Amino acid sequence: MIQTISRASLTLWLDALTRDYTVIAPRRVENLVLYKPISSAEEVVYDFGRTGLSAKEHFLPMMQSIVNIHKDQNGLILEVPRLGRSQVIFGLRPCDARALRVLDAVMLSEPADAYYGERRKNTVTVGIACKEPQEGCFCTSMGGAPDDEKDLDILLVEMNDGYAVKAVTDGGRALLAGASLSEADAPPPVSKAPEALQLPTLETWQGRFNEAYWARLSDRCLGCRLCAYVCPTCYCFDVRDYAENSSEIKRLRCWDSCQASGCYRLAGGHNPRPTKRERLRQRFYHKLVYYGQRFQVDLCVGCGRCVVQCPANIDIREIIADVAGQ
Amino acid sequence: MSNPLLPHLATLTQVKDLAVGIRLFRCKFNDSQVGANFDYRPGQFGFLSAFGVGESPFGLTSTKGRLNSEVEFAVARVGTVTAALHELEEGDTVGIRGPYGNWFPLDEVKGKRIIIIGGGIGMAPLRPVIQTIIDNRRDYDELILLCAARQPNLLVFKEEYDEWAAAPNTRFHVTVDVGDNSWKGNVGLITKLLADVAPTPDNAVAITCGPPIMIKFVLKGLKELGFTPEQIVTTLESKMKCGIGKCGRCNVGERYICLDGPVFRYDQILKFLEEF
What is the DSSP letter of B50? Predict the structure, then answer.
């Protein structure tokens, strides 16, 4: 026996959740589908394949104030903005859910990032399994699967007239308390998985570090940083103070990218990664070598967004194959 | 959950020029309990905020023992945040967070001859090393200090040269790349001074900090004198936005300069794939 939910009950449940939570779901924003807060279940898009951006922004916002600084004649007062309501992220793909586990490794390792930690603790994730791979998908190469439940609180798998429902965590079970569920005998259809690539060994990566390959590859790179912004696991950030006026200052944390020319340049002028060659190489070694050495998980979930969105057709799958020597 | 990115407020109790474009900032935490708990060792660093402009990492430039609950930073005016810090005066409020990073292995090198080689603002994190050795003079063998700067008016902590030179069992040398009319001392690169002084590697450890190009040639000079990589301790510097291993600026391989450094033994650096 498996639990199921009809499309009508799902709509009622989501509408009910919007009363207590900020419900974030795939919805149309101009010509894109993005994970954005909804006010009604009517807004949810189900046939989205892959969203333009991951749900990363709801854990690491594109821009957030980490300290509000109030200045007056009595001195300075520092205030840390807090998250308002708890969040439900609906319609998360298993790869984007895996990205949260990957980000937890760096963000929650001591000393933990309080802002990420607060959002992580106050978010329940409801995933929907992928029926088939999209162009560029390679989740199975990075340890994931199109119907992987383990980084979700609830997994939904589409069936003929609704979804199979599996509560994975206690938080997921609690969220489902208000949902009208049924039972079915037959399991949902099995997801089609992308073929797994053969990953290079650590020694192969290390041996190819100084090869001309990286300079050739970087010739194509425009340094546009899109890959970092669409990536569910890229977490590098910049911090700057923004003075709204003489008494109100916000210390803003913003998404950043290792492909920006000034990313590593010090105020004195020293730049340990002065050209695109060093920066592009750093991107792929950080993702596929160094992060795993430090945290035992790679900094990539195979979502394929950078593959399909890079304007120079730089394809991480090709790089993996090139380094592996296939 | 505690928030390591939230700075503590502090007040500048002393601002003074150390050299042209380099200022020393002494700061007292507004909450005295924070000051008492702010415990750090030579080589560690903190972030100093000029509110409204931003924050940057700087080496803590004194021992806790000499300052009690205050902290000192030496700041060279080279960029946006440092320019804003240089506009501040005694009594102004700054933000401080830290301490971050590892420290010079001063317990492990007890009983050894210590050669300290510092260039320019690179003397800032070495000053607490010198203070520690002078304050615990019998714990260490001979101390050889080599200080350098591009020109005489860029030498920092000149007021303390007499104290350092007068310390027991200590040799003290200064050089500048280019002298001026009033300069009577050594002229030439620090690598020349190092070759002239020629410290023996026997039972010795060299500690060096300075601009990357200086460190590169000092490492070469030390090697020529017979120092092994295990006998050389240096620092790596990097852009940083957080100091707590999150911002992604200071990763070199699987190491983070903010968490695993900034102090590294040269043999550790030689194992890096990437020259940083």
Answer: E
Q: In angstroms, what CA-CA distances link A185 with A155, A159, A188?
A: 18, 12, 10
Asked if the structure places residue B258 within a domain, the reply is: no
Task: Name the residue among A71, A238, A267 with its Cβ closest to that of B79.
Answer: A267
Please tell me whether residues B50 and B94 are part of one structural domain.
Answer: yes
CA pair distance A167, A126, nearest whole angstrom: 9
| Spatial separation of the C-alpha atoms in residues B232 and B219, rounded to whole Å | 8
Instruction: Answer whether B52 sits within 8 Å of A111, measured CB to CB.
Output: no
Cα-Cα-Cα-Cα torsion B57, B256, A270, B55, nearest 10 degrees, comes to -20
Q: Strands, E, within chain A: which ranges?
A: 2-6, 22-29, 32-37, 63-72, 75-79, 87-92, 123-128, 154-159, 162-167, 182-184, 237-243, 248-255
| Residue A291: count of CB within 10 angstroms of its CB | 21
pLDDT for A171-205, tens place per residue?
999 999 989 999 998 888 899 999 999 999 999 99
Q: Are B59 and B238 in contact (CB under 8 A)?
A: no
Q: With 0.90 as the threshold, say if the pTM is over it.
A: yes
Range of the structural domain that residue B145 is part of? 113-235
Label the pairing between strands A154-159 and A123-128: parallel
CATH number at B132 reads: 3.40.50.80
pLDDT of residue A160: 83
Out of B244, B247, B274, closest to residue A236 by CB = B247
Asked whether the beta carbons of A272 and A262 are under 8 A apart, the reply is no
Q: Over the stretch B183-222, which tens digit does the pLDDT of each residue have?
A: 999 999 999 999 999 999 999 999 999 998 999 999 999 9
Paired residues of B24 in beta bridges? B16, B74
Chain B, window 174-193: residues with a beta carbon less than 8 angstroms from a chain A beta carbon: none
Q: State how many domains chain B has.
A: 2
Instruction: Looking at the structure, tell me whether residues B48 and B143 fall in a common domain.
Output: no
Q: Are B51 and A112 within 8 A, CB to CB?
A: no
Q: Which of A76, A112, A263 sits opposite B249 (nearest CB)?
A: A263
The candidate with the shortest Cα–Cα distance to B126, out of B114, B112, B110, is B114
User: What residues does each domain of chain A span?
Assistant: 2-324
Quick check: B51 and A241 CB within 8 A? yes
User: What gap in Å lies between CA B1 and CA A115, rounded to an integer?
Assistant: 9
Contact B180, B206 (CB under 8 A): no
